[in-house]
Design goal:
single chain; 199 residues; alpha+beta; two-stranded antiparallel ribbon; 50% helix
Amino acid sequence: MAMRQAQGLMRKYAIREDQVLAAGVSESVKGISGAVSPPFWVLALSNMVAEAFACQAFVARRSGQASRFHFIGMGYGPEVAGYTFTVLHRQLKRARREYVQQLNIENKGEKTRRGNVFAQAWLYRAARTVSEFSDNHEGKAAIDAYIREQYGELGSFSRSPALTDSGNHADVVSGMRAADGVSLYKPMHQKGQHPRLSH
């Protein structure tokens, strides 16, 4: 009887099932400076963080504007994911820039590639720390419903990782070492608080 009453109210007020599912979902949006098409390592970072906090992530790109990363999930997950992404992106961007500056290479394209290899290695090492926060994706159906309601059908956007060879050993080792100091501290039984990050 309760179900019939609920369905009657939904028909009366033109409420769809997706809207009911999406009601418990929240969203955090974080902008980053740089190109409209962010490199592979930025996309990989956003996906890594989203997975750790049981969220879905996508990037919004518009010509002439900075890319914006959306983290969608249940409860306080998106807020914490957005905060974590911002802090880790800042740390990795700085570490990559410092590494590229000390490379004694004239070729700009090769410098960029080796900087990307460094960033990918940094992410590989940092993933061990971030994965400690991984959670079950209990709200996947609700998150999918929210995305359909708010954004409709999303397009596909992907970037390829930087190719590595035997000559990139120093880049990989440097990237992994640079990420060794990254740590996250999960609050104990205190919902709604950001994890503390240090480097």
